[in-house]
Amino acid sequence: MLVIGLPYPNNQSLAMKEKIKYWDNKGIPTFKGNDYYNSLCLKLVNQSIGRAVRHLKDWSYLLLIDFRFESLKMHLPSWV
C-alpha cells in the first residue's frame, strides 16, 4: 500500500473553522482544535491501513510518503 500525502480536510471551510474554534474553547487542556483536525486525518489513514491488513495472518507493505507522518506516527497503531 502506498499513501502519498495526508488526507487532511479543508481547514478553510466555515464548518471546519467552527469545529476547531469549538474545541479550542471547550476548556479541555489536553485536546484542542488542532488535535481534532489531526484526528480526522489520522482516522482516514488508519482506515486505509486497515484495508490492507484484515486479519492476523494477513500482511502488506506500507509506504507512508509525507514528511508530516514523522510528527504524527505516535498516533498510528503500534504494529505499523
Describe this structure in words.
The chain has one domain. It is 45% helix and 8% strand. It has 3 helices and 2 strands. It has helices at residues 14-25, 33-52, 69-72, and strands spanning 2-4, 63-65. The model has no long low-confidence stretch (mean pLDDT 88). A two-stranded parallel sheet has the order 1-2. It is elongated. It is mainly alpha-helical and 80 residues long.
Summarize the structure.
45% of the residues lie in helices and 8% in strands. The protein is mainly alpha-helical and 80 residues long.
- Cα-based radius of gyration, to the nearest Å: 15 Å
Strand order of the largest sheet: 1-2
Distance between the termini: 12 Å
Series of secondary-structure elements, N-terminal to C-terminal: EHHEH
- Which overall shape is indicated by the principal axes computed on the Cα atoms? elongated
Tell me the helix content.
Answer: 40-55%
| Count of domains | 1
Strand content range = 5-15%
Structural class: mainly alpha
- Number of distinct beta strands: 2
For this entry, give a set of tags:
8% strand, elongated, 80 residues, two-stranded parallel sheet, mainly alpha
